[in-house]
Amino acid sequence: MKIKLTRRSRFMLAAGISICVMLMCSQRSSLALFGRYRIYRDSQIVRCLPDYHWYLVDLQDHGMIPGALYSFSARGLKLYPDGTNMIKILKASEGDHIRISRQRIYINGQPAGTGLPLALEAGIEPERFDRDYIVEPGHYFMMGEHFRSYDSRYWGTVHENQIVGRAYPLF
Hints:
Blueprint: H1 7-25, E1 30-33, E2 37-41, E3 54-58, E4 69-73, E5 85-92, E6 97-100, E7 104-107, E8 110-114, H2 117-121, E9 131-134, E10 139-143, H3 152-155, E11 158-159, E12 163-169
Antiparallel strand pairs: 1-2, 2-3, 3-12, 4-5, 4-12, 5-10, 6-7, 6-9, 7-8, 10-11
């Protein structure tokens, strides 16, 4: 038997779930669900993944798939304290060739992003970020969708021991 919900009922259900999640997470950035999952909220004004605010993170899923979202614990980033949970798209892994220049970011010869706008805003010459390297074993190159994303083009790769789990956008 299939239950048909009216437009108003679907809205009320989504709103109720959203309110419950927000109330449970209001004092913390994440909520542990049965030990395997966490819900993370992206509270940045300019988000690197612009369409979403809330993510479900599977702490046991570390099967690194290019193009998938992953949560990781920041380490050594100038703009965020160590331990900050971040969510980015896995763009490259072991053996992939990365080339970063002022105009473009290339992965295995294919364009993957444009420019280094945050360097200019910080008063740092973008040429300081010019690099050409192969991703080492156990490391991952992570990027956001927004051109102003603070990601691997600025701070390099993420080590596998920083990976928290695979992230799934909720809303």
